[in-house]
Model the fold of this input.
Amino acid sequence: MGKIPPSKVQEIVFASSDKAESRRITALLKEGQIRKIAPRVYTSNFSDEPAAIIKRNWFHILSALYPDALLSHRSALEFVPTPHGHIFLTYTYTEKIQLPGLTIQLLEGPQKIDGDNAFFGNLHASQEARAFLENLQVSRRKAAESKTLTRSQIEERLESIIRTRGENGLNELRDKARKISKQLGMQDEFKKLNDLVSDLLSTGKSKKLTTPAAIARSLGEPLDPDRIKLFESLYEELAGKPFPRHPDKNKATKSYKTFAFFEGYFSNFIEGTEFTVEEAKEIIKTETPLPARDEDSHDILGTYRIVSDKREMSICPTNANEFLDIMRRRHAILLQSRINKKPGEFKDKNNRAGNTEFVDKQLVVGTLKKGFEWYSLLQQPFAKAVYMMFLVSEVHPFLDGNGRIARVMMNAELSAKGLSKIIIPTVYREDYMGALRKLTRQRVADAYVRMLLRAYEFSSTLHGESIDEMEKYLIRCDAFKEPKEGKLKFN
Done:
């Protein structure tokens, strides 16, 4: 056979029982185009060490050598080999296989059940509830090579579930584990899990927790004290002051949805999700994303589904836990197509914008709950709305979509009282962002309030059932212009 260019040969090649494929591999080996680096494993890479090649292709190797195996125990929570290069698979028998840079621990146990996840190729992974049960099995190995995480690591992971998904998320995990524990023969492990979850949720009562995050959780969530002072200063600016009440002129379903179209359109545009009005109308009308911009189109759809639903936009929180649940639920709709942004879950890594560091991921829940206290003291709908918007925006509790969800939460406060919602048109973007930055960095709240009062007054002039007619009015107001090209004007 003719010499095959190295670029045409995959980095990892596996021995095969297929005769034609076996002959091809033998030929490549004889021609010096591949070399053997482990039993049944060959590579076309002659420059890197076998350990390095195997390390970056570990999932290919497991899928090929152990079809239908289940990534399990700590590997089903970490999804990478341990620092010492161990990976754990539930399989039909127990064996330890040593490859350069990788130790494969096969563990005899129950095979894939309903709810376990496809991982890569022929490889599956234990579903989350099963993985926690597996990690609560007794392990005789030292920590570095253990098939299970330590109790402290398990505590931290369970606490992070409360932080990102709420108490309901942790209870759902426990319910799922309870359901599958008998099928897996892991009733003892479920009892341990149940005790841990109960300890985490028994505020101030448990003496068994060991990690700082879990202890802080049981004593009441830690918070960002500097942000709390900032929220207090905004409350003081708003409390006891009279604010206008602009009635919503779009009470009919069709006109409410027309306003909502532009509400969602501008809310996405300000975040960089830019469409023409015609493109946005087509997306909403057909409920079909544009082929080349699937995720951006779904952002438009998700926002519209929330803000066009008058019933949804009449829901306001009555306590802190309800506040968190409402926000997570709406976020899950808003970013439903961006799975990598974890829709409906609070952030699991910190975020920033320019020089602004938002609230640390560990402090999100406590800061939101404490901030909610001042919201609950405010009486005026406009005051509650602008406080709510800043609270969510300043904490930035999600990986993405924070500005949009902050404006949704603001407008729900107004819509629930039959008042006009607030639109931030493109031409007003710099006024909006500048006032937010001034409040964040300089603790100047009056500029922020004045900015939203003007946006509120402008938005109250938008009414009608026709998208085309409302668009014409917005054009006359310079709403679609860039800030450098125009200035917001209205009658």
User: Anything to note?
Assistant: The two ends are 80 Å apart (CA to CA). The CA atoms of residues 268 and 274 lie 7 Å apart.
